[in-house]
Amino acid sequence: MAKLNRQVIEALRTTATRLQGGADYEWGHAGACNCGHLAQTVTQRSKREINRMVGGEWSEHLNDYCPVTGQAVEDVAAQMIAFGFTPSELADLEWLNDPRVLERVPGRKHLRRNDRDDVVLYLQTWAEMLEREPV
User: What domain range includes position 78?
Assistant: First the structure.
C-alpha cells in the first residue's frame, strides 16, 4: 500500500482537481492518462516528457524492474515509487481496479478506465481511504 503520508494524499487530490478542471485527458497517451496525470503531479514533468520516458503502456513500464535489485529501469516509475506509491497501485490506477478502493466507491463497484469522471472519483476515493487508514 502507498506510504501513508500527507504528500501522497495531496498528490492524489491535486491530480483529481486538475482533471476535474478540464486538464487534457487521453487514456491512450502515457503522459495524459490515469498514471500519466499522477506522474505529472509527482514529477512536475510535462505530459510530453512523461510520454517519452514511459515509451508505451504504463503496465509494461511498471514491469521494467531489475529482477535482482528491484530498482526501476526508468526515472518516472522510480520517482513515483520513491514518492510513496507501489507498482501494483499504479497499475491498478491505470485500470481503476484496486478492490480496496472500489469497495469504498459510493454507489458502484465498476469504473470505466478511460472516463475522466471515473478517474477523478477513483483518485478522490483513494485519497479518502488513505486518510482513514491507521498510522
Answer: 6-132
